[in-house]
Recover the amino acids of this structure.
């Protein structure tokens, strides 16, 4: 079972979803949970069932002291690169919090200072601390919902299923139909097609 980070502090957990995708935004969330928040099923969102993620999304939004979710879109990712876009998204989600945290805990190993609030980067933090796991659930559910909406516009890429990740099916569709306004143009969308012959 996951634990709170430090019950003496007002702690915001932050995480992102969609960093490795070829299409769609990177989505970041920040969550401050009450000190007595408990959940038997909350975990790293990637390890949870769709049903549990969706029911927890509502629970988190109902019980959180504050939460913020933002998309950073393809054009911005292409301009500033995916790492900077992920950190920017986390900063923007923290800006949306109605309460200023005393500590920020971040999933992963890269972050930039935000408002001089102390922060700690925690590798696999979404499987260790409740507030990061909660942020991972919000980031993933909001992003998945966005990808399901744009699937209607371009069903041939099957974003409803692959959510923009580089599956064989997604790459095959890019090869066949080309790219869309939702693809990240700075990403390597197709494997190299040229082979060096000796």
């Amino acid at each position: 079972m996951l634990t709170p980070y430090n019950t003496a502090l007002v702690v915001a957990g932050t995480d992102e979803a969609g960093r490795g995708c070829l299409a769609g935004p990177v989505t970041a969330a920040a969550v401050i949970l009450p000190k007595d928040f408990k959940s038997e099923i909350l975990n790293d969102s990637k390890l949870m069932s769709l049903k549990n993620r969706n029911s927890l999304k509502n629970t988190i939004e109902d019980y959180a002291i504050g939460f913020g979710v933002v998309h950073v879109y393809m054009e911005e990712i292409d301009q500033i690169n995916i790492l900077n876009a992920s950190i920017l998204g986390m900063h923007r989600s923290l800006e949306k919090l109605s309460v200023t945290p005393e500590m920020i805990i971040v999933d992963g190993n890269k972050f930039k200072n935000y408002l001089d609030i102390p922060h700690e980067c925690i590798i696999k933090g979404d499987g260790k601390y409740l507030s990061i796991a909660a942020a991972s659930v919000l980031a993933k559910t909001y992003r998945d919902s966005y990808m399901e909406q744009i699937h209607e516009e371009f069903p041939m890429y099957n974003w409803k299923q692959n959510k923009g990740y580089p599956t064989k099916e997604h790459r095959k569709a890019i090869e066949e139909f080309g790219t869309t306004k939702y693809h990240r143009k700075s990403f390597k969308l197709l494997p190299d097609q040229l082979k060096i012959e000796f």
Remarks:
- The first strand starts at residue 11 and ends at 17.
- The domain at 11-147 is CATH 3.30.420.10 (Nucleotidyltransferase; domain 5).
